[in-house]
Design brief:
Elements: H1 4-18, E1 23-28, H2 41-45, E2 50-56, E3 59-64, E4 68-73, E5 78-83, E6 93-99, E7 104-109, E8 115-120, H3 144-151, H4 158-162, H5 173-182, H6 196-215, E9 256-260, E10 263-267
Antiparallel strand pairs: 1-6, 2-3, 3-4, 4-8, 5-7, 6-7, 9-10
Length: 273
């Protein structure tokens, strides 16, 4: 599932193409994705101009000049791409936004776990999907004191905690494993046993890993592409994720794979004791 770096990459690639353009048609090729589509999506968007593209956690927001915003969540396999006016529709294209210059914004989703809806822009952060989110990793609120307060007396393994969007947004499975490796913390270590120094190292590692992933255009394991239909290349920088039985780049030990709450976790048993 696309995480913060992928959605941030998508935002940056789309905004250069679509900001300032009017939506002249909102085409729905099916009536539902993860949930039923609002039958009034076209009325809430047509003849409005795109004034901004931004990201909230793992949600891509297209702000319109009519005080509405279109909210996209990519789900497992969603792709939101900018296409020229001569584009031929493909299988699993479900939503098409036609711009005033006849170019298109196309939402394609093979497994249909994605989500598209329209909200009043001023109400975005009170929507049920957005209202209980933790801080952004790049925000001032994401600091040592904040995590110390979150972690105090809790027996949750650290990897599960940093994947919890109520604690911090956007640190998905890949980036959690990579951040814990960089900070030399075992993914099974309980929150209550983390030291202040370890928490500080972890924050620094999360910010570093996410920034590096954004610079590489995100991580494409199978489905993700940015708004220009290009994959991300952070997979080439992965130190532990998806490297079971490979040698650790730091110490040479064999990378281990375990399961935590049904998700694969990769780590070095020597570097992350």
């Amino acid at each position: 599932m696309p995480e913060l770096p992928e959605v941030e990459t998508l935002k940056r690639s789309l905004e250069k193409h679509i900001v300032g353009h009017k939506i002249i048609s909102f085409i729905k090729l099916r009536t539902s994705l993860r949930s039923n589509l609002d039958p009034n999506l076209d009325e809430k968007t047509i003849n409005s101009t795109i004034k901004n593209v931004r990201r909230i956690a793992k949600y891509l927001i297209i702000e319109l000049d009519n005080d509405n915003s279109i909210v996209f969540h990519l789900g497992m396999t969603g792709r939101l791409t900018f296409r020229k006016d001569n584009y031929d529709l493909q299988k699993h294209d479900h939503i098409i936004l036609v711009l005033g210059n006849q170019n298109l914004i196309v939402f394609n989703d093979a497994r249909r776990f994605g989500m598209v809806y329209v909200s009043a822009t001023n109400d975005l952060e009170s929507q049920k999907y957005l209202k209980n989110l933790g801080p952004e990793p790049f925000s001032e609120e994401f600091n040592v004191k904040y995590l110390e307060d979150c972690f105090r007396n809790r027996k949750t393994p650290i990897k599960l905690a940093i994947m919890d969007n109520k604690i911090v947004v956007g640190v998905g499975n890949i980036y959690a494993s990579e951040s814990l490796f960089l900070s030399k913390i075992n993914p099974s270590k309980l929150l209550q046993n983390l030291t202040k120094d370890e928490i500080a190292r972890l924050i620094e590692a999360i910010i570093f890993v996410l920034n590096e992933a954004i610079m590489a255009g995100g991580t494409t394991l199978r489905d993700f592409v940015n708004g220009d239909n290009k994959p991300g290349y952070f997979k080439q920088n992965l130190k532990v994720y998806d490297r079971k039985n490979a040698n650790c780049y730091s110490c040479g030990a064999m990378i281990v794979k375990i399961s935590q709450s049904g998700r694969a976790t990769y780590y070095c048993p020597v570097c992350q004791k």
